[in-house]
Amino acid sequence: MGDSAGASRAYLVSDGDVLLPGPASQGPWGPTISGHVVGGILARALEQLGGAPGFVPARLTVDLLRPTAITSLEVRTTIRRDGRRIRLVDAELIQNDTVVSRASAMFLRRGEHPAGDIWSSPVTMPPLPPDPGPLPDDLMMFVWGYGGQGESGGAMAFTEWHDATGPKYAWIRQVRALVDGEATSPFVTVAMAADAASATSHWGTGGLRYINADYTLTLAREPVGDYIGLAATSHNSNDGIACGAVAVFDAHGQIGNAITVGLVNPAESFHPRA
């Protein structure tokens, strides 16, 4: 890891075709890159190749195949389909000539919106968090969680969910750039937040016992503003395998959904950075 990565507040520094992760990129499951940073890296590459005026990034699927070391990495992208209304793009994250994660994204062209109403199960997010004031320099991201009967927590409030048995909600705001010197796009911002679908849907009274193996984000539109909201809508688990779902929001309302699959992991292996 180069000195520039260590000195930057961003998760990563770009050095040509190579990305250098800094200390802030470490996740809660050990000395590896956090899943939300991995998802952001892949979403950024997919958007750079597949994004275009008039198209919406309507679906992102991220497969977290192997632990990603905090060392240099590269991304390889391929266009699978480039049609008039549909673009499908694949990406692979490479370390030491090995694919450690992969993703695909579907970009759809906007069109005339049809008339009529369609039923949908209503989901309501709690209010946006209050101004938290100055935040610690080493904070990975700002999370304001609600659990149980709607009581609120604070920054990185995932850690407050141990006693909450009811539905869980989280407002997430990124407090550092993904790549040094680059503005993080709305699509990359929501892609990073969607990794927390696992924590939001799988956190129980015993803490977070499932490490996510993948997640899929679907969007009707891109988010507006800094905050991404996640509202848990379901959790199912059996024999150490869990699947969960959340509704995804911005400050103006629901914009999509995310689903995730997880594998049971020892409780002592999870170390959230509060």
UniProtKB/TrEMBL annotation:
Residues 27-107 form the Acyl-CoA thioesterase-like N-terminal HotDog domain. InterPro entries: ACOT8-like_C, Acyl-CoA_hotdog, HotDog_dom_sf, TesB_ACOT8-like_N. Pfam families: 4HBT_3, 4HBT_3C. Residues 164-255 form the Acyl-CoA thioesterase-like C-terminal domain. This is Thioesterase. It comes from Mycolicibacterium aromaticivorans JS19b1 = JCM 16368. The lineage of its organism: Bacteria, Bacillati, Actinomycetota, Actinomycetes, Mycobacteriales.
